[in-house]
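quick one
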Amino acid sequence: MAETIVARGTPSGRSAIAVVRISGNDCAGLLAKICRSKNIPTENPRKMICGEIFDEDGSTIDDVLVVYFPEPHSYTGQDMAEIQCHGGQTVSLAIVERLIKTGARPALPGEFTRRAFENGKIDLSKAEAIIRLIDAETKEQVKGASRAMKGELGDLTSEIREKLIFVLSRIEASIDFPDEPETAEIVLGNLASIIDQIEDLDARVHRTGDQGSQVVFYGKPNVGKSSLINAIAGRSVSIVTDEPGTTRDAVSAQVTLGGLSVCLVDTAGHQEDLALSQVDKEAARVAKEKVENAAMLIWVTQMTAPEPPPDFSDLTPLVVVNKSDLAVANVDSEKSVQIENEEGRLVSAKTGAGVAKLIELIQNRLTEKFGPADGLPISTRQKHSLDTIYRSVKLADQRICNKQLELAAEDIQMAIAGTNELLGVDLEVDVLDKIFSEFCIGK
Ligand code: GDP
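structure w/ guanosine-5'-diphosphate:
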């Protein structure tokens, strides 16, 4: 018996309309208690019915449109209803409250989608694609998430899983009946095709991980980090002054570069001086933290005193020499950096020279690192599962060639476990809790 849950499907705030969703066994019963209409929604499934929601004293709360979806042909696979009411802060909330008083309970984040998953309407990869679609910040991200939602990742994973189960059965049969000569050939053929499928998929995914794309600008105070970020963002994000050390907090700007949603982070700069004030020390600590979490680092130095980046991150920074409008200084050669003439490395935030090219360089580096902006969005967890499948299949392939069938069978089991993680088969409840807690309420 599925409890009936209720939530607003639209955010609070001023809007023309709002949507309230209900799902569960008592959907029809609840509608009968709170909605009056000439045509009865439950007798006219999947049709929009005009009606009114009334309060306990019989007074009208709102004129609405109601659609009833009987199970299993609904988003959740259960009886569901959607009520379209007037927008604004209060009307939809009043309807939700009325439903709760009548017997529904407030839905948890992602609970509608979780029910869809648990009722077999969608696999986990599709459920996760829905959250990516809702969170998409660019059109390219929408395209990638839509493809994942339609099953590009899930269907491929199911296909691979089927092949692995078949391969496992053949290997196990060979262990029991070793005189079947064509087994190795069939198994190796299947494994090769799985390897091709995963390699092909790898070129079509977008891996931003769970931290998003943070591009962190660091460098000595006053080299023009804030000015460069302002020039790239095309608006004033950071305060620019002649006074060194004006940026103390990590200021950030969300921009779209080539379909990628990128957060440009301005730091307080790189200060090694031990005689820093308390505020400066804290600023330097925040800057270092940002550097450690960055997807990409840009070391900004200036034409008048070019310096190489300090060595404190595993990431190789893109070295950008700013103030190209000024003359090159006579700097001591040990400290100077090679002023590379590659376009985009030599820029002037003041005149704009080289900035467009720098943007292109950033886009290229991020695409190289994460994959195309319109690729299938892959979380760290999903990437880990895909890597497990790939590694295990490669190992199994070697073992079959070496006639180590028992070990090959174990590898294939590992690979099957990887597909299970992607599809959500036999996944532990706390893993599912974590995944669905990222959803908004009402989805
Ligand atoms: P930050 O401390 O590294 O963030 O540096 P700012 O962006 O605050 O800039 C420090 C100073 O350098 C300001 O006076 C800017 O106007 C100046 N500046 C920034 N970029 C350029 C540039 O490309 N050319 C010149 N001539 N001055 C610049």
